[in-house]
Amino acid sequence: MKKDTQRERRVRYIKLQDDGRIRIGIIGTGANVSVADWHTRGIIHDRRARISAVYNRRESTTQRWKDRFSLDAVSCTTPEMLLEACDAVVICTPNSTHYQYAMAALAAGKHVLLEKPMTLSLEQAEQLEAVAGQMGVHCCVGYTYRFTQAADQLRSLVRNHIGNVYTVQASLGGTRLADAGIGMDWRMYQALSGAGALEDFGSHLIDLAHFVTGGTYSTVFCQSDIFIKNREGENGPEPVETDDSAALTCRGGGGLGSFFVSRVGLDALRMHVAGEGGMARVTFGEETTLCFWEKQSGGPYGGGWQNIPLAQETPFEDWFRWETSDFLDGIEGKPARGASFQDGCYVERVLEAARCSAENGTVNRIEKEDFR
User: In the predicted model, what is the mean pLDDT of the chain?
Assistant: First the structure.
């Protein structure tokens, strides 16, 4: 008789609890821009799970968040209390705390959905990956753009038409922090965030390029800058420590990659992929458009751009809903396409090399780039 795996036993145990629903704990409900809100909507939408517990360092924020979503989740005063009341956790805290909360959850045998970037350092990320493998739990990193219709179709175009990839160009950013009147928050302190736009937006682009093309990079050159040098802190103006914008050039099994990120004046996500069988371009957002221009193998381009129809979707709301569904699939032992901790470690390798490159002005190697 086949012996049940550790994961199968854990899934069966979960199914016996709480009327068969998977109990999810939320760590971190946010203050300014709350990714926890999107995760919450995704969980509420899926009948396989419910939010059973929440922990946030500010209890007043926790109560407002519970009231907003009409939740009866337990308000926990410590992370340990939360881990006793759930089967899986979603971690939405500042980057500097990802490691400690994820490691505690893994030690307690919980499934983990960890917001990006995975950790502040490659060493921490590799430790989480190793422990997750030992515990036999399902873990993923919140690279939500994987769950867009455009990413799915672009990936299909690469595999079925474009083939060998020559170049990837992508950009992503925001506009909120272009306002110099916005004061300091955790994203602007190196000890809490690691880097700025490079971590926040660049991590998404590196993961998406890997997801779409299947390739990985072996070298990177990065330049970054801070344009709003000072912002108002608790006791007056303070120097901003993390980058407002960054530009990366990568090379490796994914061809040449060019990535630009900025938190002080860039809208939407744009990606362009060119290769042996043609090129495709996409802009993600309210009106996502995907176009493809076919090329004969070894021959010329012909026919011009063609629009690829995409199923209708609501940005972010649908993306997080599909990410939640995928996370629950993984917990139940079904195939899942979310970014694994192994994928997260690859992104951290690129980011760590990029940070060193920006600091030293050198082209840096990305170790262990080929893991598939």
Answer: 91
